[in-house]
Write a structure and sequence with these properties.
The chain is of the alpha/beta class and 393 residues long. 35% of the residues lie in helices and 10% in strands. The model has no long low-confidence stretch (mean pLDDT 97). Belongs to the histone deacetylase family.
Length: 393
């Protein structure tokens, strides 16, 4: 296997643009610009790859052919309805099929580079559209690029793929698509579905017949900050992923768990999100010989959060982490001010939050995070031969 990292990027990926909408491609543009200004994309072993659109074979591995035809046709019909399209969440836009297929193609390129040994790690920050269903757009997502890429890995011979989703929203589309497939472990940490879209991701959702235990859901209470989130992560994710013994780790790294995100109510910092990315990288190094595929995802604090968080992700994937105290480059700050006048532009790569957490223990008087952890551990740990009450498992 070759060392190094593939970063899949081309400005054409910015065409996934729903107009006046929270999912603004400026967040991806500013991420790449920040990573470039900090020298992350010029590191030894980093290779930028321009994507090609996913073809019909790749898309129909996950999505119904009639749905794909509807996505193609919708921009030409101002009265189009159905398939989850032409809604406030999923407005129709010109070139929708082409732009969505290109995002899928970018994640496919990342996955194939890792599986074929051309790179140890690969990143597509424009991807992570995890809500799309086989025949329905949902939650700003038209095609489900993580699922399309995972399906390709299975077709290439992968037997065990772990998908870990740290977006604030449940990774419902990926879970649903692989619900009955014991070769794919889906793990999602998210704000409780009692409070947030898409209303799924309860601990009791553990996988279909013959795939019991391959869906893992940690539903966290609103207001959970770095210490609680990281405690929950380390109490669940490493144990189930180790028990599954994956050949490759695929992560969806949505940045919308941040305290400034306007669409949700977890309270993480950029520093906590950086710690999560490093923990995921370490898990890939430990279990998968370093094979790690990462995408972006949600994140709607377009200037204040997403570019820094995903630049930290790119740094984790390409070599040494960026010092949180590092200044954001002046050229980047000026670009951000031009692209989004009036927004607060961060001066440094940190939120000045110490990243500390205590190890999970089965407490006699647990707080809300501990109760969420125990609900997940009770639901799924026995299915992997793990003891839900033993903090060493």
């Amino acid at each position: 296997m070759a060392d190094g990292t593939v970063v899949v990027w081309d400005e054409s990926l910015l065409a996934y643009d729903m107009g006046d909408h929270p999912l603004d491609p400026v967040r991806v543009e500013l991420t790449i610009a920040l990573a470039r200004e900090l020298g992350v994309l010029d590191r030894p072993g980093v290779r930028l790859v321009a994507p090609k659109p996913a073809d019909e074979v790749a898309l129909t591995r996950v999505h119904r052919a009639d749905y794909i035809e509807a996505v193609r046709a919708a921009p030409d019909d101002p009265f189009f309805s159905g398939w989850g399209l032409n809604t406030p969440d999923n407005p129709v836009f010109d070139g929708m099929h082409e732009a969505s297929a290109l995002v899928c193609g970018a994640t496919l390129a990342a996955a194939e580079a890792v599986w074929r040994g051309e790179a140890r790690r690969a990143v597509n920050v424009s991807g992570g559209l995890h809500h799309a269903m086989p025949a329905r757009a949902s939650g700003f997502c038209v095609y489900n690029d993580p699922a399309v890429a995972i399906a390709r890995l299975l077709d290439l011979g992968a037997e065990r793929i772990a998908y870990v989703d740290v977006d604030v929203h449940h990774g419902d589309g990926v879970q649903a698509i692989f619900w009955d497939d014991p070769r794919v472990l889906t793990v999602s940490l998210h704000e409780t579905p009692l409070a947030l879209f898409p209303g799924t991701g309860f601990p009791e959702e553990t996988g279909g017949k013959g795939a019991e235990g391959t869906a893992v859901n940690v539903a966290l209470p609103p207001g959970t900050a770095d210490p609680g989130w990281l405690r929950a992560f380390h109490a669940v994710v490493p144990s189930v992923v180790r028990a599954f013994r994956p050949q490759v780790l695929f992560t969806q790294c949505g940045a919308d768990s941040h305290r400034l995100d306007p669409l949700a109510d977890l309270r993480l910092s950029v520093d906590g999100q950086r710690a999560a990315h490093l923990a995921l990288r370490d898990l890939a190094d430990e279990l998968c010989d370093g094979r790690w595929i990462a995408t972006g995802g949600g994140g709607y604090a377009l200037v204040e959060v997403v570019p820094r968080t995903w630049t930290h992700l790119l740094a984790a994937a390409t070599g040494d982490p960026i010092d949180p105290a590092a200044l954001t480059p002046l050229a980047w700050r000026e670009l951000a001010k031009r692209r989004r006048p009036g927004r607060d532009v961060p001066l440094r790569m940190t939120d000045d939050v110490p990243v500390t957490y205590r190890q999970w223990q089965p407490e006699s008087e647990p707080d809300a995070v501990d109760r969420a952890v125990m609900a997940t551990r009770k639901a799924v740990f026995p299915l992997h031969g793990l003891d839900p009450h033993d903090p060493r498992d």
